[in-house]
Amino acid sequence: MILAIDCGNTRLKWGMHDGAHWLAQGLLDYAELPALAGLLAAQPRASRAVAANVAGPQVGEAVQTTVAALGLPLLWAKSQSAQHGVCNLYDNPEQLGADRWAALVGARALHPGACLVVCAGTATTVDVLDAEGYFQGGLILPGVELMCRALAANTAQLPLASGRFAGLPRNTLDAIVSGCLHAQAGAVERMFERVAVQPGAVCLVGGGAAGQFFDLLRVPKTRVDNLVLEGLARIGRELTP
């Protein structure tokens, strides 16, 4: 049994994987992090834990303490040159974020062909994985909420938008939201061109903000709620219990 923990920019996600299926999954805001120990103690007993952390050292230390109290060995996932069928062509492979790497590993496990790996959260990452498992490179752009907040913070008369998507917006709030959603979808569609000619190519889309622009995408696509956890479950098999 593997305990997988994804310490993202905004929230922590966790899951219990038995090697074939997820038995339980959950998420916590970081203000609720002290509750993590109790949540995990109520789950089936894991033999090991694996985590990815982009939230900073304070969160990492809290997770380390919680996992240690459960008596589990903990592996901190890091980007590799090659792992689980994925080869990393980043100029400096270790510079790639652990969450992006885990998402690529998860995508390869779920789809053996070419794919575009999209994780939409505080930031949106858009990564190209070819049919042979080579990570060719990718984008990082502000997430939907960050884009909207940037307009509100850096313009004199544009508000923090609470509008909705419209094909031809006719008020300012809808215009801001629609512009940000088009920007997300457009970036994904442009990057999908890199794999579109490969047989069975698909866009795998996950993350808390994915639902805001998923339906706008005019490419073959599949929602995968927790790509990072999917990859961590595979990476965690390397840790000897």
Key terms:
single chain; about 240 residues; alpha/beta; seven-stranded mixed beta sheet; five-stranded mixed beta sheet; 6 helices; about 30% helix; globular
Describe the structure.
Helix content is 30%, strand content 27%. The protein has 241 residues and is an alpha/beta fold. The strands form 2 sheets. A 7-stranded mixed sheet has the order 6-7-10-9-8-11-12, sandwiched between helices. Strands 3-2-1-4-5 form a 5-stranded mixed sheet, with helices on both faces. The longest helix has 21 residues, at 172-192. The protein starts with a strand and ends in a 6-residue tail after the last helix. The model has no long low-confidence stretch (mean pLDDT 92).
Please sum up the structure shown.
This protein is of the alpha/beta class. The chain has six helices and twelve strands.
